[in-house]
Amino acid sequence: xxxxxxxxxxxxxxxxxxxxxxxxxxxxxxxxxxxxxxxxxxxxxxxxxxxxxxxxxxxxxxxxxxxxxxxxxxxxxxxxxxxxxxxxxxxxxxxxxxxxxxxxxxxxxxxxxxxxxxxxxxxxxxxxxxxxxxxxxxxxxxxxxxxxxxxxxxxxxxxxxxxxxxxxxxxxxxxxxxxxxxxxxxxxxxxxxxxxxxxxxxxxxxxxxxxxxxxxxxxxxxxxxxxxxxxxxxxxxxxxxxxxxxxxxxxxxxxxxxxxxxxxxxxxxxxxxxxxxxxxxxxxxxxxxxxxxxxxxxxxxxxxxxxxxxxxxxxxxxxxxxxxxxxxxxxxxxxxxxxxxxxxxxxxxxxxxxxxxxxxxxxxxxxxxxxxxxxxxxxxxxxxxxxxxxxxxxxxxxxxxxxxxxxxxxxxxxxxxxxxxxxxxxxxxxxxxxxxxxxxxxxxxxxxxxxxxxxxxxxxxxxxxxxxxxxxxxxxxxxxxxxxxxxxxxxxxxxxxxxxxxxxx
Length: 505
Fold this sequence. Notes:
The chain is of the alpha/beta class and 505 residues long.
């Protein structure tokens, strides 16, 4: 256990009483004794040496030695030859701290805001264990395969060339070089139509959503949310005081006609059209055009969250909503958490030119840009081709891991688990046969495996679905990006045991 210096123990000497060694000795002993009684010094913890205490308190070593000897004699401390001085493991009964006076009874806890209550009641979505990635963690890429050496070299280069101006506040919109790199990438890879001026750099998708909500929504405004859908988006809308309206997702994505019936006055729509979260379906081109047309006529905003569409396996990409929009109603948000690594906490928002200046002004009042160094390094990473090479490499690796997951499911869970076809992203949906998803998830957790029931992504109770309908509660969401084929196979074997155990609960 580390030593505790006097400054940590809040020992303060009264210099007016420093005229005698006895006065200083008594003050030191009193300060340490109180720290023991208050619990600031835990039983068994080691004190600093008498020499260190003397230097810290600017007194003679003899004074600190006498103070500690007094506390050893009283039973508060114990001296171990050659090892130092420690707080006694057990204090005599007459030296134990007196019980704190009984707190005044409070009938009810402090009231929370209605928004906080709504946030606490919101379904949590997936579950995550602390520690290293494991099967079948959702939302985490292969962080162990990120080119750390290349990134470190770029960081070092930027630090060596830093100027005084780089240490000041930067552009509220984000580093110009990164905005240019992002605009160039999405134009070529996703078919968007934008300039770098339309790009705002944010600290991840969540901050981007909160910024758009703050700018465009009033309390009580209704927002279409995919059902099931991304819990983080739901939280952003609730935090803004908006009212999320669940809209069903079918094989073609969000049901636009159902949304128009349920909330024709909605001010905003949130969708994940390239890889619906969590079901994984791709919104059809006809449905995309229908949504863009409805938003233009209703003068509603559409937030397109394109969180992991960079990873496609054999399927032809469909133009993003932003590229199809001719009425400037689609707001595009993207993140580098899946393509690079989550700890980077950088994302971007693409907004129409007419909205850009006002959005920047609102942001300047409420927040500033993410760390400038991270933005500059990411810009270098993209401009020098490292980003494109990393994406190409990871597409091949993730395709292999997806194939390994499908093979492992057929080998270990045949007849108990059915993987839905997947052509995009880093997770799949697996239907359970004759097993409860919540029970399976609990049994899997006991075996060190992370799985998420689809039911955790619903905002409201689901009626009994029609046969074959997607989104059934007896389904699991399985991530495959964060671990290799061997770990996937071990995880699937454990999941098979969990399914069997859940059937007999």
